[in-house]
Amino acid sequence: MNRYNLANKTSLVTGGSRGIGLGISKKLLQSGSDVVILSQSEWLKRETLDELKVLGNIDYLCVDVSDYNDVKSKIKKITEKFNKIDILVNNAGITIDKLAIRTSDSDWDKVLNTNLKGYFNCIKSVLPYMIKQRFGKIINISSVIGIKGNQGQSSYSASKAGIIGLTKSIAKEYGAKSINVNAIAPGYIKTEMTDNINSDKFLDNITLKRAGLPEDVANLVCFLSSDDSSYITGQVIDIDGGLVI
């Protein structure tokens, strides 16, 4: 059962076609929001699109989040169709796992440009519309790795830590415009991306002794998107089953 009424809201979800992003897209649709998925892929699986259409009003655009001009132009198109943007969920991300000494300039730039610059590009592009309507919800998906670090993930960890600083800064800059900005730091969430990871080493350190699901993150996204969270901003909320305590 959906607890939050997001009817008449327009939500953008970057990287919303699979994994955690897909779970978020589904839950937002079920809560009544129109949803636009922004993804680097030029197409969305037909079965996925059909599943989403059953849940609500869905649109899909291909965008390179690391390219500000591309992001800005695509968001302009969205506002022309939906007239507004109420909710931005920054979720698109990549990882190139290597020890620091083996991480090339190209590897570093690809991860930071997508995971951190991409978030900033989307935020900068939606802010004029949110400021004008004096309302907005920006939710940035970070990671517990951005809090505690991890071997072989220096670029990913740096990008996710940067998202936390970005979240707090934007929250301070635009709180007076009734724009709430928060971050979510998922832990070990069961998705296609984690299927090849040995879960035993994670589960031993998780207090609840189980992996999380995309729905766990999506439920919090819907809360932070709703009026019930109107006095919450600049926060980083872990969803990790007690991995980081």
CATH architecture: 3-Layer(aba) Sandwich
Using the alpha-carbon principal axes, give the shape: globular
Distance between the termini: 30 Å
Radius of gyration: 17 Å
- Count of runs of 4 or more consecutive helical residues: 8
Any overview of this molecule?
The chain has 245 residues and is an alpha/beta fold. Helix 3 (68-82) runs parallel beside helix 4 and helix 4 packs parallel to helix 6. The two termini are 30 Å apart. Strand 4, helix 4 and strand 5 (136-141) form a beta-alpha-beta unit. It has helices spanning 19-30, 46-55, 68-82, 105-133, 145-148, 154-174, 200-203, 214-225, and strands at 10-14, 34-39, 58-62, 87-90, 136-141, 179-186, 236-239. It has 8 helices and 7 strands, in the order βαβαβαβαβααβααβ. The chain has a single domain (10-187, 213-239), classed as Rossmann fold, CATH 3.40.50. The protein is globular and about 45 Å long. A 7-stranded parallel sheet has the order 3-2-1-4-5-6-7, with helices on both faces.
